[in-house]
Amino acid sequence: MKREKKDYYEILGVPRNATQEEIRKAYKKLVKEWHPDRHPENRKEAEQRFKEIQEAYEVLSDPQKRAMYDRFGYVGEQPVYQEAETGSSFFEDVFREFENIFNRDIFDVFFGEESGRRERRKYARRGEDIRYTIEVNLSDLINGTEIPIEYERYETCLRCGGTGVEPDSGYIGCPRCGGTGRIREEKRSFFGYFVSERTCDECGGTGRVPRELCHECGGSGRVLRRVRRTIKIPPNIEDGGHLRISGGGNAGYYGGPYGDLIITVRVKSDSKFRRSGRDLIYDITIDYLQAILGTTVEIPLPEGGTTMLKIPPGTQPETVFRLKGKGLPGEYGRRGDLLVNVHVEIPKNLSREERKILEDLAKRRGIPVA
User: Fold this and answer.
1) 142: helix, coil or strand?
2) Residue 273 burial (C-beta neighbours within 10 Å; 0-12, 13-18, 19+)
3) Domain segments of the chain as ranges
4) Which of 3, 22, 9, 170 is nearest to 77 (CA)?
5) CATH fold label, 273-364
6) Beta-ladder partners of 329
7) Nearest-CA neighbor of 302 among 324, 280, 334?
8) Over the stretch 183-206, which tens digit does the pLDDT of each residue have?
9) E strand or H helix at 344, and its extent?
10) Which residues have a Cβ under 8 Å from the Cβ of 278 and sit 6 or more positions away?
11) Which of 62, 9, 12 minimizes the C-alpha distance to 33?
């Protein structure tokens, strides 16, 4: 039977470059608008529209299915176009026929078998992972911290328990395949007539369909909810490191397990410290007289507070002092060091008195000056 190729983007009312979030919002709006219970006066039309919305969302919400649809114009089942004046050439028809045949298993085309491929039944399968990025301060990495987050995820529909079937409605035989779970087709191609048999895409090979879809989830078995949870950040996490929260992702399909929540941790840059693994680098600038005569300076610590560092007389520019155990904790809790990099500031302009003192000192030491 000939039928028109469906434009899933048009069905959902989104552009072809729509994001997953835009697709989800459009779907959520349309399933509420076209739920059959809201259209008792023309229920059959609403049911057909509702089914098309579900079909479109199932394809466009799955990156792999969407990519196949964008490329070939269909997913799984071969596209059947209306017989119309398309202006295609003889060779275009030949190449399209090759594509239609060899995109499916050759044994399936000739013998009606899946050739070892698993049937596309509605088996329970795992939900999608969700990725989330959080930012922490450098000071949070000393002892670790806990950060509350909020995000949206699909959870198992409580009304139907994830089956997608309205409670107490039960199942009926699939009208598309007559309850066999398989569809047999005879198709005419450039090479002759072929008889093929495939899994029914309406019932997924089970031979039955819900008598009535769940009123809460629209048959998907999942509902979108906003959740809050607290994420524990370990003290030794690296910038860009990942944390995996088992079961924190989307609910599975048809009773399948939840996916995971994958947290990417970004450490905010600190104006005081630079990081080098577990060590921290702190830059300080002192006057040339302090470098010559020695001094004591106050050094901030990453966890807060300060400590005093003694600069000995004659300290040279770019000398590095190491404060052991004042850096970041490592894998086994041992902290790195705080490296104090000393810069010496040489004045560009001296007073007449300062210059005379330095010239007299240079003369006594036999140092030529300008």
Assistant:
1) helix
2) buried
3) 273-364
4) 3
5) HSP40/DNAj peptide-binding domain (2.60.260)
6) 335
7) 280
8) 877 666 555 566 678 888 778 788
9) strand 338-345
10) 327, 328, 329, 330, 335, 336, 337
11) 12
